[in-house]
Specification:
This protein is an alpha/beta fold. The protein has one domain: Thiamin diphosphate (ThDP)-binding fold, Pyr/PP domains (Rossmann fold, 3-Layer(aba) Sandwich), CATH 3.40.50. It has eleven helices and five strands; from the N terminus they run αααβαααβαββαβααα. Strands 1-2-3-5-4 form a five-stranded parallel sheet, with helices on both faces. It is globular and about 50 Å long. It binds thiamine diphosphate and magnesium ion.
Length: 333
């Protein structure tokens, strides 16, 4: 097992120790942050509305982000707390946004599904399934029109690929050669429906064939794999200015939203994936390669918990937005 792990990662030996450790620190921060959010929502009742956690899928947020440049754009769906943190929005500002407080990244007016930062080029957080996909094509158009070298990463879930606007946007992106990396986080389920009950397509990357678009499928249970795939894809896209559809195979451990009892899948299936938890696997890899000790992993875990609890304290103390906020940020100035 250990040997397999080493063999699997040996191709990445050029990556620095600091980088490999940082990937672990990022994943554990995302996990502890979301666990804190769960308690804040269920036990402390700090906010209402929908709340979708990214627990189990953290390797995607970490692997993708490290392969990008800070100036690249990102846009996502409603399961985007960790994507927002990965893109550079402070955990405190994400937590305050969840709590509807004025120090939130959208001044408490967006909430869980609408994280946003113009400065960090994180363009939401969108609650309409597939709604972000045509917006991403628009961002890609703007990049190309301005002659920039950036790309736009557009995250979506597997079920979003059944939406009409997904197809229209892919058609346009392929026709106009827009620099958009469409990433499907295939966690196998929509709200509670197995993806194979809603499409006859066995692999979602095949959606790209209809538009003659570059495509790939990536094992999302290995953070280095994700990093490698996105890095080489993004490099190619910058060089040749074209879109790409990437299907990343992943799995969520919690319900679709916090209130989902998850009756549509077995406990055994969830346990099977948890046994292959990408965060734990990467931790084991660090220890096996003598890049870290078990004590280091425990220390980074404590650090992550502290960042998450500090974010919660900050959000608790931040005031709600004043009435005058209603009139601000409605239209672009
Ligand atoms: C247009 C539209 N239809 C239906 C919904 C209700 N809805 C919210 S999430 C969801 C499932 C989406 O699943 P997927 O795209 O796989 O993303 P995941 O939740 O697995 O990350 C549905 C049907 C919605 N928000 N928007
Ligand atoms: Mg899904």
């Amino acid at each position: 097992m250990k040997q397999d792990l080493m063999k699997q990662k040996s191709k990445d030996s050029v990556l620095s120790k600091d980088f490999l450790v940082q990937l672990y620190k990022d994943m554990i921060l995302y996990r502890r942050f979301e666990e804190r959010v769960h308690v804040a929502y269920t036990t402390r009742r700090k906010f209402a509305g929908f709340c979708h956690l990214h627990i189990g899928q953290e390797a995607v947020a970490a692997g993708v982000q490290h392969a990008l440049r800070p100036t690249d754009y990102m846009i996502g769906a409603y399961r985007s707390h960790t994507q927002a943190i990965a893109k550079g929005i402070e955990p405190k500002a994400v937590m305050a946004e969840l709590f509807g407080k004025v120090d939130g990244c959208v001044r408490g007016k967006g909430g869980s599904m609408h994280m946003f930062s113009k400065e960090k080029r994180f363009l939401g957080g969108h609650g309409i399934v597939g709604g972000q996909v045509p917006l991403a094509a628009g961002v890609g158009f703007a990049i190309k029109y301005r002659g920039e070298q950036d790309i736009c990463v557009c995250y979506m879930g597997d079920a979003a690929t059944n939406q009409g606007q997904f197809h229209e946007a892919l058609n346009m992106a392929a026709t106009w050669k827009l620099p958009v990396l469409f990433i499907i986080e295939n966690n196998r389920y929509g709200m509670g429906t197995d993806i194979h009950r809603t499409t006859s397509v066995d692999h979602l990357w095949k959606r790209a064939l209809a538009y003659d678009m570059a495509h790939s499928q990536v094992d999302g249970l290995d953070v280095l794999n994700i990093y490698d795939a996105v890095k080489s894809t993004a490099d190619g896209m910058r060089r040749d200015n074209h879109p790409h559809l990437m299907e990343i195979m992943t799995y969520r451990y919690r319900g679709h939203s916090v209130s989902d009892p998850g009756a549509y899948r077995t406990k055994e299936e969830v346990a099977e994936y948890q046994a292959k938890d990408p965060m734990n696997m990467h931790g084991k890899f660090l220890v096996a390669s003598k890049l870290a000790t078990e004590a280091d992993l425990a220390k980074w875990d404590e650090e992550a918990k502290k960042i998450a609890s500090d974010a919660e304290d900050f959000a608790d103390q931040s005031p709600p937005p004043g009435e005058d906020e209603i009139w601000q940020h409605v239209y672009a100035e």
